[in-house]
Amino acid sequence: MIQKKICMLGTFAVGKTSLVRRFVESIYSDKYHTTVGVKIDKKLVQAAGQELMLLLWDIEGAETVNDLRKSYLRGAAGYLLVADGTRQETLYKALEIQVRAQETIGPVPYLLLINKADLIEQWSLDAREMEALAAKGWHVIETSAKTGAGVEEAFLTLARKMMET
Amino acid sequence: MAELPTPIRDFILELTEDRRSPAYLLVGGAEGLTEWGGDLSSYGISGLQPNMDVGEHIPFLQGLLPLETRNLFLPHMSTGDGLYADVYLFSRDGGTWVLLLDSSADASRRQRMQQKANDLSLQVADLEREEEALYEAQTILEQRVRERTVELADMNLQLRNELAARQRVEAALRESESRFRRLSDSNMIGIMFWDLKGRITQANDAFLEMLRYTRADLEAGQINWEAATVKDKSALDERAFAQMRDTGACTPFEREFIRKDGTRTTLLFGSALLEGSQNKIVCFAIDLSSYK
Prior knowledge:
The complex is a heterodimer. Chain A is built from 5 helices and 6 strands. Chain A is α/β, with parallel strands linked by helices. In chain A, helix 3 links the parallel strand 4 and strand 5. Chain B is of the alpha+beta class. Chain B is built from 7 helices and 10 strands. In chain B, strand 8 and strand 9 form a beta hairpin. The longest helix of chain B is centred in the middle third of the chain and has 83 residues. The model of chain B has no long low-confidence stretch (mean pLDDT 90). Classes of the chains: A alpha/beta, B alpha+beta. Chains A and B meet through strand 1 and strand 2 of A and strand 3 and helix 3 of B.
């Protein structure tokens, strides 16, 4: 069976663990629990007409881009950058992390997830920056680990992209 | 680094074995898994077979083999049930060794510290957002107060102007009333007020004298147009009313009146509608009998 490693990247408290739990176990908790190190989950999906085992590396949030441990990224076939829509600075961190990730593992597929869509009325993102990212060809998906909105789409889209490369 | 004495090396080894549950795998080149040992089951690894593809069997090794660097360190990898391992991969003697050492205690300690730090950061971010929202609200409020103050100042000025204009009008009205009162009280001419129902409501002494009525008669409502006038045969009254409707006043004309005692007298009679009224009329009268 084909297996692909996916890394969940982003600063702390953006919802990386919650997105994985929603995708793998279909559960959500409001309580914030800091991830230390890395936790690996698996989920079998269908992508490009084949069974694909996704190995989801939920990596601890990086306060700065230098805190991101490159060793966790080795062997990844793709990654999901996660930002919190209610905290503009988490988007900037995600953009920095993307640069570091690309330096480490090369141009593998990735998506930008703007999480906490259930709190969209509290979002503080600059619309012009989002438009600029879209213009650069970034694939951006709005997600909510709380409601599940966009979660399945995000993982399956990345799975499809990884199978295409 | 100076070579450690054997007792020290042995002690470190015992300490590691005792506290960190070492376990290992050795992966050859093409031959796959060649050797393993230690308490691998405590890290959730079991079912190993010689020459198996460990990348397929052990999820965290997927994509890492063959090792591209001399060493690779994966700290605090969760192995389930709250346990963590520090994972070291290194190449020696043609194979890749994978060493797992329990790091649960350290990870737990770090988790507690990191949780506090992150919670604090989130609280600070929340406070900053609230402070920013408050600042924005205060700015908007101050702007509204400034705008409202200007509006109120304008309204105040307008009210002052209106009040001054009203005071001027009232003063002019008082002066006009005073002049009229003086004219009426002088009794040089007869003045009376009546309405179109024929009721004479006010009259000065000169008018009452012209028709030989008393003030008591007036107050008792005993004076009215029908009783005090001779029936108009020349349509003068009609012309006067038409003039009053058109212009507010009529040209004075001679009119025959009936006194209280039944005798007749001719008065030069003029009238005008009171300002803002369609049925209240002020009249003056001059007794022409003394001039004839």
